[in-house]
Amino acid sequence: MKLSTAMIAVSVLLALGGVLALISPLLATLAATSVVGVFFLFAGALQAWVLFQNRFEDVAAALMALLCIVAGVWVLADPLRGATSLGMILGALFFVMGAVRVLMALQVKGSRARWLLMLSGTVTGLMGVLTIFDVGGLASQLLGILLGFTLLFEGAGLFAFGMALNRRGY
User: Fold this and answer.
1) Number of domains in the chain
2) In this structure, what are the phi and psi dihedrals at residue 110, rounded to the nearest 5 degrees?
3) pTM for the whole structure
């Protein structure tokens, strides 16, 4: 199989995954949250195992291992609550990112990019506020929506790359 064909095939799968995630963002959020929970649990268990194997007595490392295990179990025990918590954290991050972008826009007086920075900051900050206050249950579906758009755009980018490879004979 040519490299370009493989890239185009993967791009179609990514885009399809993105569309499915956007059709059912709650299901995509629960799936993504469960994966995060498994990673937390695995990371904590691995850290604890390494600590015990090496008879390492670092309290901070032991607490970190325990925290990862607890976070993993907590997220896996109730993925919806875990998704909402992760969504709230993302909402706070979006709010801060939006505020910083608006402040950047205020500092670039006379620049053509000022209105774009202002718009970007306002929209990102508003997304943060909507998520933090869980308007329309957004926090529980945010990860799925972000996953859907990410997969869709990654698919589009990989498709363009595959087409460029194809034109070059790969």
Assistant:
1) 1
2) 85, -5
3) 0.70
